[in-house]
Specification:
338 residues; alpha/beta; 12 strands; disordered N terminus
Length: 338
């Protein structure tokens, strides 16, 4: 309820984004829009939908949540049955899991026309919606700030052997991304040398998502974890949890993308909602609900969460690189850590 109220206040006080009236009229005629999301419903899908409906009365937002792979499978199956239900979808790699380019519409949002090139595709099939920064975190009840690792080299200290947790998720947000970050930072020869040494530290694989790994650290089961999201730790810190995330440079940067489904039943409403999500209004709703906005002019809920205001370096993973190279990074991980 608090998030919905905050979103409504933003709409009243924020600068309105200029959208073509013809698009608004066409979207209102369609009357609804269907969003397949990978994001948390109560945290952002519901607040974003409520704010959109408040700004554009007469357009109802319908949504469902699933993993990227499940969303992609659902879209593909609906297209195969010639019963397309969704109008737009999001996810870090959903658009690439579809594989068939005919399933994704090309649309270049006006809201993102001045954004850096790395935040949008050249062919209009995706635009960055929110950002992810992957790093390490520790339990402040178990580890003193002076003893916490500051660099990747510090993770090789014998005292951390068997005490570092990470996820089993074989995506750029998991061990494969860690492998890439090390190789990109240190080079192939020194990077592989480091990874072999890190494997001897016997990091513990948790059969759960990155948020689950962080919760294991917060509960005190492990003192330290790697490849967790800095904003997840920030949310827990605000709730009083004994955790602190580390600016272990460079952090790894990926993002969640928003795309429009080809041949969706409400194409104009889909465009209008994408414009809203990527406008300063929509991006401020993301920030108010503890996601990190992709919009270059919209800050995170806490300034230290974004590199330009938080003062940390990142290794950026373009979506196409994640698609093309994750298998290679995964092979290195399996060879060294399994």
């Amino acid at each position: 309820m608090k998030a919905l109220l905050f979103a409504a206040l933003l709409l009243i006080s924020g600068r309105a984004y200029a959208v073509d009236q013809a698009l608004i009229d066409a979207a209102r005629k369609e009357g609804s829009v269907v969003w397949y999301s990978t994001l948390i419903v109560n945290q952002i899908v519901r607040p974003m939908s409520a704010a959109f409906e408040a700004k554009y009365p007469g357009i109802k937002v319908e949504y469902s949540r699933a993993s990227s792979s499940d969303v992609a499978l659902k879209i593909a199956n609906e297209a195969r049955a010639r019963r397309v239900q969704s109008d737009l979808f999001d996810g870090s790699n959903t658009v690439f899991l579809l594989r068939d380019p005919r399933l994704v519409a090309s649309y270049t949002p006006e809201a993102a026309k001045d954004w850096p090139a790395e935040l949008k595709s050249k062919d209009g099939t995706w635009t960055g919606m929110n950002l992810f920064y992957w790093t390490a975190a520790y339990n402040t009840n178990l580890v003193k700030p002076t003893e916490a690792p500051k660099t990747y080299a510090d993770l090789l200290d014998p005292k951390w052997k068997g005490k570092i947790a990470w996820t089993y998720d074989l995506t750029p947000g998991g061990p494969p991304g860690f492998v890439h970050n090390i190789l990109a930072t240190m080079g192939q020869e020194k990077g592989m040398e480091y990874l072999r040494a890190f494997a001897k530290q016997e990091p513990v694989t948790i059969p759960g998502a990155q948020r689950v790994v962080l919760d294991h650290v917060i509960s005190g089961e492990y003192p330290l974890c790697v490849m967790i999201l800095n904003y997840h730790a920030a949310i827990s810190i605000k709730a009083g949890a004994p955790v602190k995330w580390l600016k272990m440079e460079p952090l790894l940067n990926t993002m969640s993308l928003v795309s429009i489904t080809a041949n969706g039943p409400h194409p104009n409403a889909a465009k209008l909602m994408v414009e809203f999500m990527l406008s300063e209004e929509g991006q401020k709703i993301l920030a108010a609900n503890d996601y990190i906005p992709a919009h270059p002019k919209v800050g995170a809920s806490s300034p230290d969460l974004k590199p330009d205001t938080g003062g940390f370096r990142v290794t950026h993973v373009p979506p196409e690189m994640a698609r093309d190279d994750n298998e290679k990074w995964t092979a290195i991980y399996k060879d060294l850590f399994r």
